[in-house]
């Protein structure tokens, strides 16, 4: 199975299935001498792990990470860093009834058609469980980037309910179970998701990730633009169906005057007066905040019966039991942060290699 690795100089490969004994990743390209401990990785995994509120899956996984290689006496050695996360709360029997059915919206049909075999237990390799590996790799990427680069994500819309951007307060992110920067929206999301969850249904979401302190010059024209790599990174996350950078699709309605990020000299340095470009021009970072948003579809596992077909070609109906997120977008926030971190770390190392 190809396509399990991401990045060029900073590169990671993930492995494992949702209901296998463990998942993990191998991170290669990390420079030597960087302080790294399991606690540095665990703090980010704890933000993604399931079962932290009634609005996420109740699967209970500690997501405890073990460093198997690449670190000696608390510092990276420059060799591959192997990270292991054991699965401890699988309930594979929840999937016995659907092992011969294709769940609409899932990867069941495409995996079966491509490989002739699939792990039906929690979607196997196609499960969002795999994203824990990305968060672990992202934690290493943050260490490569250093403390000067800050990468933060927020949930800005659940279903039809979007935040008021004028109320944005980063301090609110850790005060609610939604990563919501708008305190006034939290109660609305709580009541809305309670209705969705009790109905056995699901809903989508939009996440925004902002990277600040990113130096000027990261990005490799023409095909390895930093924004195109961010788009690929975010689109590779389970259930993501759309990505935009900066003003994104809204730029289509702007005039050239509205869209242009004008510049002035301030303290002897160029300064942008706006950031419709999302911190990237010509595929190269401008030094402004890098801003990306991505849309996550509703969780495909729902209790409402849906029409489908069986593996042997018969019409059928399916409803999915088990423990599922009514809005998978909630736990996608730290995953989006991690993927942006991996892209920026990769491009930082590539920039140093070419430009010194």
Provide structural commentary.
With 356 residues, this protein is an alpha+beta fold. Helix content is 25%, strand content 22%. The protein has helices at residues 38-48, 108-115, 131-145, 186-198, 226-235, 256-259, 329-355, and strands at residues 5-6, 11-16, 22-28, 65-67, 71-72, 75-76, 81-86, 150-158, 161-162, 205-212, 240-245, 263-266, 269-272, 280-281, 284-285, 290-296, 306-309, 315-318. Strands 1-2-3-7-4 form a 5-stranded antiparallel sheet, with helices on one face. Strands 9-8-10-16-11 form a 5-stranded antiparallel sheet. Strands 5-6 form a two-stranded antiparallel ribbon. A hairpin with a 2-residue loop joins strand 12 and strand 13. Helix 1 packs across helix 3, helix 1 runs antiparallel to helix 7 (329-355) and helix 3 (131-145) crosses helix 7 (329-355). The longest helix has 27 residues, at 329-355.
Q: In summary, what is this structure?
A:
This protein has helices at 38-48, 108-115, 131-145, 186-198, 226-235, 256-259, 329-355, and strands at 5-6, 11-16, 22-28, 65-67, 71-72, 75-76, 81-86, 150-158, 161-162, 205-212, 240-245, 263-266, 269-272, 280-281, 284-285, 290-296, 306-309, 315-318. It is α+β, with helices and mostly antiparallel strands and 356 residues long.
């Amino acid at each position: 199975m190809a396509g399990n690795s991401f990045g060029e100089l900073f590169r990671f490969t993930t492995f494992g299935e949702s209901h296998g004994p463990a998942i993990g990743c191998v991170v290669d390209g990390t420079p030597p001498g960087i302080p790294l401990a399991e606690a540095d990785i665990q703090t980010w995994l704890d933000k993604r792990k399931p079962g932290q509120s009634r609005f996420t899956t109740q699967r209970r996984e500690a997501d405890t990470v073990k460093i198997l290689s690449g670190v000696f006496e608390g510092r990276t050695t420059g060799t591959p860093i192997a990270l292991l996360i054991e699965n401890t709360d699988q309930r594979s029997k929840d999937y016995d009834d659907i092992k011969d059915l294709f769940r609409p919206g899932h990867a069941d049909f495409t995996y079966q058609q491509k490989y002739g075999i699939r792990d039906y237990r929690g979607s196997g390799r196609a499960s969002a469980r795999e994203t824990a590996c990305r968060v672990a790799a992202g934690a290493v990427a943050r260490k490569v980037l250093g403390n000067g680069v800050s990468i933060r994500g927020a949930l800005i819309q659940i279903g039809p309910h979007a935040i008021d951007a004028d109320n944005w307060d980063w301090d609110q992110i850790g005060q609610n179970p939604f990563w919501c920067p708008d305190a006034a929206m939290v109660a609305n999301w709580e009541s809305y998701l309670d209705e969705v969850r009790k109905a056995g249904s699901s809903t989508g979401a939009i996440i925004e990730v902002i990277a600040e302190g990113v130096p000027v010059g990261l990005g490799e024209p023409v095909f390895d633009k930093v924004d195109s790599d961010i788009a690929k990174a975010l689109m590779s996350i389970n259930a993501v169906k759309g990505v935009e950078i900066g003003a994104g699709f809204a730029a289509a309605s702007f005039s050239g005057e509205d869209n242009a990020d004008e510049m002035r000299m301030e303290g002897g340095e160029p300064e942008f007066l706006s950031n419709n470009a999302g911190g990237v021009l010509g595929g190269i970072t401008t030094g402004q905040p890098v801003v990306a948003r991505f849309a996550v579809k509703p969780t495909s596992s729902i209790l409402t019966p849906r029409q489908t077909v069986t593996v042997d070609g018969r019409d059928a109906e399916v409803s999915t039991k088990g423990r599922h997120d009514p809005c998978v977008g909630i736990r996608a926030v730290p995953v989006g942060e991690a993927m942006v971190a991996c892209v920026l770390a990769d491009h930082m190392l590539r920039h140093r290699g070419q430009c010194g």
